[in-house]
Amino acid sequence: NAEYGSGGRAAAAVAKLSPGTVLHAYAPVIGSSGQDALERLGLELRLQPSVHGVAFAYFHPLSTPHIEPRRSAMAQHAPIELSGEAVLRFGFLEGEAIVHANRAVYDPQTSARPAMFADNGSSADELALVLNEAEVRALSGRSDVREGATALLESGDADVVVVKRGVRGALVMERGGAASEVPAYWSERVFKIGTGDVFSSVFSLEWAERKNPAILAADRASLSVAAYCASGILPLTADAQTPREPAPLREMPVVLLDGAVDTIGRRFVMEEARSSLLELGACVVCPALDGASMSSQAVMSALVISDGLLGELWSRLRGLESAGIPVVLFDELHATGTPSQDGRRVIDDFTSSIYFTLWAAAAPRG
What we know:
alpha/beta, 15 strands
């Protein structure tokens, strides 16, 4: 449980790296414990009163959040207006921000009818859009992400477009320049909630405030996300940008998902795992859910969920490992007593197990 919002999390991320950072936000109560915690980091808070707060509840870090109040019942407030040299503007649910900046970064935070940066009168001498793939399609009207980013640049709506692609890193495109790719980086664990906020925040620090090239800013943002994923702790420190191993990912890796579906709970976890893998770009083979047969030649990695497999677990693991298929074993309760070893990684966290399965599919085999 935390009192952040995207703006609060982004400000907290760079509190030590950018002294003097100011957070402008809506708040139903002025002087909460969450606000006090942000101020203790050295942040200046300029808050506009709102009728209600907004709550996001996640079943797990890869799930779509439940939002309260529902959007149709959410009050809309007067815009927040500000000027600054370097400004990161997020889209709001309960209002909007009209900003004027030398360099601005805009992260709309929604693919459901996102507004263009200048639609509300905002202006910037130089503008970078930080978008996920769905937001690029929504803003550009193009189904191909590269074509959509190019269209946004050619229309004059932005000088830089950075496309966040999750496990596949980021695509950086500049007006008049070539597209560049920034990898995602390995982390010891993967805590996913807020990674987009951290990316936008560090990119803004590096590009808008420090005036670094966009590709360097995006790479440092990706490194910072990996550091945040590993700890889940803010603020970031200077060592968050320590070099890490890139986490390469093949396009559409073929992943085997194995586990028990004999109870509602076990089936739910299997369905969530399949949904998460598909959303991140994998092709999933899951005999337990769809009756498909497995071809060991096609499968690049396997995620095995231990709960409920009992005596069948070891024979299944041996079969996969003898075929040379890297295995991620999701053992949430440490019930199997098995350690990680060559070709097998044991994980007790759901989100981490999904990401490590995808990374294992891209790793070169022995």
